[in-house]
Amino acid sequence: MPAGPSNDDVVLAARELYRFYRAGEEETLALRGVSLRMRRGETVAVVGPSGAGKSTLLACLAGLDEPSGGEVRVAGVRISHRPETERARLRARLVGVLLQSRNLLPHLTVRDNIRLAQHAVRGRPAVNAEALMEQVGLGRRTGALPRQLSGGELARAGLAVSLANSPVVLLADEPTGELDGESEQLVLRMLRDRAVNGSAVLIVTHSAEAVQGADRVITLDDGRAYEGRDRHEGTTQAQEGSHVLR
Q1: CA distance 48 to 239
Q2: Predicted structure pTM score
Q3: Of the residues 34, 54, 81, 84, which has the maximum number of CB atoms within 10 A of its CB?
């Protein structure tokens, strides 16, 4: 397990995140004061039962959803509690997001999906789309539509889109959930390579392979975060108050 990150290394910091949902008279508390920090080059796996708050946490970290309380900073910049247009701009520049939907618009080729993501960031030299597809092993499929790709190819193409702007933080939601063993190994290897190249990589997962390859594991249970693969591990402590998982 790596040492705790210094302030200079921290590229993702969440402080006391709460997320409430209301439906009529009922209120659901999806996140209960979750704090975490990640440094460059670190891979963290987030695990837990269905409904524990994993996807909600990822959405708040990415600026896709606003926390009801607390804040998220990426590379020192606050991404939470801003208008959606500002969050989208910061997300495009700083955060790569790989969702279960694979990030691809069905009517665009893989090449055009990548270029669309790059168009959202102005003034930055874009990574060549063809070169990016070569990196994920799809150099001959840049002109394909999503419906023409296999499951493993879709996962890799979605990863290429999430990497289009060389993000400092990469957030992946069940990136291998529907893949066979060979494709899973390939995608996980590419995620690890991204961490080696300096990004902080957070993976929401049920995959034992993804957990085994992570530097740290955070378990979510009933909206609370615990360090370790199991909240009942002897060394695991509940995250409360100012306690920050790092």
Answers
A1: 15
A2: 0.87
A3: 34
